[in-house]
Amino acid sequence: MNAEELKTKKISILGAARSGIAAAKMLKQIGCEIFVSDNAKINLNIIDELNNLKIPFEGETHSEKVFNCDIIVVSPSIPKNSTILNFAVSKNIKIVSEIEIASWVSKGKIIAVTGTNGKTTTTTLIGEIFKNFGFRTFVGGNIGNAFSNFALDTYENDFIVLEVSSFQLEFIEYFHPSIAIVTNIAPDHLERYDDMMDYVLTKFKILKNQNSSDYFIFNHSDFYTQKTLEQKKISSKLIPFSSNEKLQFGLYQEGENIFYVDNNLTQKVCNLKDLKIFGKHNYENIMASIGCAIFSKIPILSIEQSINEFRGVEHRIEFIREIEGVQFFNDSKSTNVDSLQKALESFDVDRKIILLLGGREAKNGNNYSQVSELVQKKVKKIFAFGESSEKILGNFSNKVSTQIVNSMDELVFHSKLESKSGDIILFSPACKSFDWFNNYEERGKTFKQIVNQI
Questions:
Q1: Last residue of some domain: 32, 62, 97?
Q2: Can you point out the beta strands (E) in 142-193?
Q3: Which pLDDT tens digit goes with each residue over 64-123?
Q4: Containing domain of residue 170, as a range?
Q5: What distance in Å separates the CA atoms of residue 45 and residue 348, rounded to the nearest whole number?
Q6: What is the reported pTM?
Q7: 140 SS3 class
C-alpha cells in the first residue's frame, strides 16, 4: 500500500503518545480520515495539537468509534492479546504498528535494529557512520524520532536507521529492512509474551519479509539467536559477528582489534584502544555496525574514523564525572539482569565497584544468580533502592555488604561517603524505573543531576 491508496482509508489510531501522534500527523498530511483514541488522559499539549490539526479524538476511553475504520494503528504499549484488539480482529479490521504504516509511504532503504540490549547504541552508531560518509540518513523508531515523523521526507537513496522493539514488531505485515540486526536476546518483557520462545520469535519477525538480496547481521555467540537459526529457515544473507571466537566469515574481536574476514581475506577495522566506549557488549554493538556499513559499501577507513569518534549514548554506561578519584557512571538503561551483567563485565577491576541496584522488577522477577560470581569478584558494596530493595538485600547480603536506601539523594550521598579514590560508582539498576520514575531516561537524568550537584 502507498500514500495514494491510504487516502481512501479510514484509520483509527490507538494511543496518543509519541508514535501515535506522529502517525496521526503523517496520515493527516496524506489526506486520510483519522480518529485518535486513548484510554488514558491525553496530555493538554497533545490535545491542542490535535485540535489545531482538526483531528477528532477521545481520551480516557476506547469507544465504539474506534471500530468505524479500515485500519487500526496500534501503540506499542497495547498488548497483542488485549480486549480491544481481540474485538478488532473479530470485526476483520486490519491492525498494524506505526513502523508498518510508515514503511508503506517511505522510499528509503530501511536498516532495522532489534535485540534485548544494545539496540540504541547500535542504531545511533550506524547513523553516525552513514551520515559521516555523506549518505542522507534518518535515525529513529523506538528512539528519538518516530518513523512517521520523517517517512514522507525520504527518497530512494536515503538510509532509514530504525531501532525497533518486539512490541513494534508484533503487528508488521510488509515491513522490509534491507539490513536487519539482532544484537542479542535475553529474558525480558516476559509478562507480555506466552514464554521465552514467543518473545524470541517476535524479535525474529524483523526478518519476515527479507529475501536473498537482503542481509541479516547477528551475534554468533548468542544462545537464543543460534537456537532459532537452527530451527528457522532464513532467506537473507547471514553475517555473523563474535567477541568470543575467530570466525571464517564475518566480524570478530581478537585481542585488542576487530577484524572483518571474507574469502580468506582478513582486514583490521579498528583497535579497541582508540575507542571512546568500552566493554564487550559495546564491541559487539560496534561489530554489528561495521557489518552494516561494509555491506552498504562504506570504506573501512571511513568506518574506523566514525567509530573512533563515537562517544556512546546517554544512560548506557555513561561516564558522568570524577570526584576525588571516584568515577561515576550512569547506566539507567539497565532494566534487566542481562544488561547489569554486561555493565559489570565492562570494568576490569576487582572489588572496586559500588553498585547502585533496584527499581521495579518484571512480572517474572529477576534471577540475580546470573551475576553472583561477578558481584563477588568486582563489587565492594551494593546500595539497594526501590521496590526490589528487600529482594536484592536477601540475594546479596551474604556475598557483599548490602544496604537499603530510601531516595535517590540518599543513594548518591551514601555511595560517595563509602567510596575512596580509585573506586567506581555504577548506577546500573537491573530493574524497570516505574516505581519512582516515568521511564529510565528520567531516572538517569535525576541521578546525573544529583551527582553533578556534589
A1: 97
A2: 159-163, 179-182
A3: 999 999 999 999 989 998 999 999 999 999 999 999 999 999 999 999 999 998 999 999
A4: 106-309
A5: 47
A6: 0.83
A7: strand
